[in-house]
């Protein structure tokens, strides 16, 4: 029978945990605002390193000191990973579960180590307590599941680790006393030792994969969205228009575009300051988003100008949407926010061959006409010339 050297496995795992902890710290320091929970995972890995060092020093330190502290550190490490996963998914930290678990683990190991020595009971207590942390993370993965490999990979590893941990607890209670003793060479101990240490490292890597994917999504959103109002920027709008244009060419459906500009916005900034001006922009963006349909897309093209692309929309329906925006803007003024109005120009794309630049230019010309005719009004652009 092939036997694993527990001390070699433990040394390798401890060293790898230290490297992963350093990687987690680097990610946390760089993206602490973007990705929550990574710092707790880093602290958990550091606690596991401390536990590994204490287990490696067993025999040089009294068991009455080394074993309780090492087991508590290991419980802290797994518990902090649970808290980190909770933070990552935007849920409360679960500190009550964490403190109850490590306190119960410390009481159990002290009792069955000093008062009534019983290794199987110590092993079972640890296994069942830490399995709660894995089960809670499994719950989080299932609740926030997405159809992506990283999510399923993380969940599968947690399930396997939980099953492995519970199996050791059951073996400690109902099989021979040495079955769950990792320092003794047995088939069950070898299987548990291999799976537990390998899974602990893989679970950490899987969480890093989740964090990396979330960070990638955040960076992609930042590249396509306006940071102040949350609507699309010009780059995001161009990407969306490309998809709409391809669909329109297949179905020959109508398409309308609305150019919106705040009236006298420079006067608002000069009189109330740029902070109030930003609030006005956010309020206008919120009103436009609330008025638009789910299939419409809203973008900010810089300054105080917004653009709304409306697939499968005629000019008549686009004009109704413009009137609704202006009415909502009058009725939804927040206390302390300067009042404002908007001028709107609308252009309809009747020729599939017309370029986006031509469509935007016609909507802008209608917008300028609305400004010239007294502001706070809507104008419709004329049809595109055949040359467009």
TrEMBL record:
Record-linked Gene3D superfamilies: 3.30.70.270
Domain GGDEF: residue ranges: 253-383
Domain of life: Bacteria
Entry keywords, A to Z: Membrane, Transmembrane, Transmembrane helix
TM region positions: 6-31, 38-58, 64-83, 95-113, 147-167, 187-212
Record-linked InterPro entries: Diguanylate_Cyclase (IPR050469), GGDEF_dom (IPR000160), Nucleotide_cyclase (IPR029787), Rev_trsase/Diguanyl_cyclase (IPR043128)
Substrates-to-products reaction catalysed: 2 GTP = 3',3'-c-di-GMP + 2 diphosphate
CDD domains hit by this protein: GGDEF
EC number of this enzyme: 2.7.7.65
Gene Ontology molecular-function annotations: diguanylate cyclase activity
The protein's name in its UniProt record: diguanylate cyclase
Organism: Pseudoduganella guangdongensis
